[in-house]
Structure formats: C-alpha cells, structure tokens
C-alpha cells in the first residue's frame, strides 16, 4: 500500500472499529526509558509533556495543545511545525510532514490545528519495525504500540478502510 500525501484519509465506521479493537497496551515511563529515542514517537499533549518531564525526547512529537476535546492546557513547543488536521481525518499535509521526517531522519515537533489522534497511523506506516509509538488514553494513562510486521499489516488494513479524498 502507498500512503498518499496528496489525499486526506477520512475515518469510516469500519476503520474506527478496527482501531478500537487494537488499541495497544498501557505502558509505564520506565518501559519507555528503555527505548532508543531515535525509534520513539509520541502523540498527544499529556504524553509529550510526560516524556519531556522525564528527559525523553522522541524522534517525532505530535500535539494539539488541548486535551479532552477542547481544554487548552499545554504550552506550545518552540520550533514546532503547524499543520491543520481536522478531527476524524489524516490530512495529506500531515502525512507529507511525517514522511519527510522519516526520510530525513530528523527530530520534529508537529503542532496540530485540529485533532492529532489519528497521527499514530502514518507514524506506524513509516516507522521501522521495533519502534515504539506512545500516545495518551484519556482518563486511563499512556498507551503504546510496539511496531512489528503484524502491526504494520493491521495499520495498512485500517488505512485501506478509510475514505480517501
């Protein structure tokens, strides 16, 4: 499968169900500290802040400065790239920025204007096997997905079930 940066990927009921059934596991900061930071990716304000407080700086950090759909609670991070990404969508521009970060092997901070939840999918798509993606689970904690071939295949299935416009 090819992930196209000239198109937007829109969540469908079928893709949403697949995501809900395969939501990773709860993880601890101790487990995250064991990962080479070059192969660590973070999505979500609480998660990014937690990692920074613990001296952990992932290769990619994606955040929207809000939590629980609207409570502005986190400061912006200097040097971040801003990109619009509406709720329920993976925008082509977000895909382009994530792909470029992997191609250039460059540490990057992406501030989303809109919603960042689905950004986990293009990260998994481009990240090497054995990488770790961490993300916030509201009212629960920090989740993680260790990327392996099964996870990559599942991600491709989810992306194929999304509407592409």
UniProtKB/TrEMBL annotation:
This is GTP-dependent dephospho-CoA kinase. It comes from the Archaea. InterPro entries: GTP-dep_dephospho-CoA_kin. GO terms for molecular function: GTP binding; kinase activity. GTP binds at residues 45, 64, 116, 139. Belongs to the GTP-dependent DPCK family. PANTHER family: GTP-DEPENDENT DEPHOSPHO-COA KINASE, UPF0218 PROTEIN TK1697. Pathway: Cofactor biosynthesis; coenzyme A biosynthesis. One of its GO terms (biological process) is coenzyme A biosynthetic process. The lineage of its organism: Archaea, Methanobacteriati, Thermoplasmatota, Thermoplasmata, Thermoplasmatales. Its EC number is 2.7.1.237. It holds the Pfam family DUF359.
């Amino acid at each position: 499968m090819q992930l196209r940066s000239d198109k937007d990927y829109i969540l469908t009921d079928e893709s949403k169900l697949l995501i809900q059934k395969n939501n990773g596991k709860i993880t601890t900061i101790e487990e995250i500290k064991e990962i080479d930071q070059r192969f660590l990716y973070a999505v979500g304000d609480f998660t990014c802040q937690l990692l920074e407080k613990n001296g952990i700086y992932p290769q990619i950090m994606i955040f929207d400065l809000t939590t629980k759909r609207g409570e502005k609670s986190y400061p912006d991070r200097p040097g971040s790239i801003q990109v619009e990404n509406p709720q329920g969508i993976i925008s082509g521009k977000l895909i382009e920025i994530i792909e470029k970060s992997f191609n250039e092997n460059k540490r990057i901070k992406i501030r989303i204007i809109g919603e960042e939840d689905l950004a986990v999918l293009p990260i998994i798509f481009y990240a090497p096997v054995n990488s770790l993606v961490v993300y916030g689970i509201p009212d629960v904690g920090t989740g993680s997905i260790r990327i392996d071939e099964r996870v990559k295949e599942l991600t491709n299935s989810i992306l194929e079930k999304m509407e592409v416009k």
